[in-house]
Amino acid sequence: MAKLNVNGEEQEFNAAPDTPLLWVLREQLGLTGTKYGCGVAQCGACTVHVDGAAVRSCVMPLRALKETQQVVTIEGLSRNGTHAVQRAWQLLDVPQCGFCQSGMIMAVSALLKDKPNPTDADIDASITNICRCGTYNRVRAAIKVAAQGVTRRRVSAADDLQTTDGSLS
Ligand code: FES
Ligand code: FES
User: Fold this and answer.
1) CA spacing 20 to 30 A to 107: which of 10, 55, 136, 145?
2) Among the atoms of ligand 1, which is closest to the Cα of residue 43?
């Protein structure tokens, strides 16, 4: 029996040590918001957070993870979809078909945690996710909108008291 902490809860499941994290999330835990695109770390559709860092879960074997590490998927990014990045995505209607977007949002939320005001060069370097629908311009615009929200939150002690997950109240 393997164990992982996913979205703040300890989970137990049966899986071989070389099983990619993506398949544990989707097949064992039913967290299907994380998508399979390429399977070879190229497209980013499978992006989740491990201890706050963006990780392409299709190429992360279970054996590479410790039970104490915190895995967060799109389902656990915020309460009620209120993370600053999710709000910016809604505001600008970023998704087209939507398939790539959970991975895109997870990659962007990890970037903004490290760099609350990313430059275009920062975005180009970090957000290498592929969108077959070509939503790149809206993604970039929404990152700028989300960055304003993240920055507001960081200077607002009241928000920090109310939320712990990046949500904006
Ligand atoms: S499915 Fe993991 S990077 Fe494409
Ligand atoms: S919105 Fe369709 S692949 Fe990105």
Assistant:
1) 10
2) 4
**Sign of the torsion formed by the C-alpha atoms of 152, 157, 161 and 164:** positive
Q: Which two tokens stand for residue 60?
A: 């992360």
- Determine the Cα angle at 142 with ends 139 and 146, to 5°: 135
**94 alpha carbon, closest ligand:** 2
Tokens, residue 46: 């499978």
| pLDDT tens by residue, 12-51 | 999 999 999 999 999 999 999 999 999 999 999 999 999 9
Tokens of 109: 């939320």
Give the integer Cα–Cα distance in Å for 38 and 6: 23
Reference 152, options 111, 116, 104; nearest CA is 116
Mean pLDDT, the chain, whole residue set: 91
Handedness of CA 84, 131, 45, 41 (dihedral sign): negative
Q: Taking the mean position of all CA atoms in its chain, how far away is CA 102?
A: 6
| pTM of this structure | 0.90
Residues lining ligand 1, Cβ inside 6 A? 36-39, 41-46, 56, 58
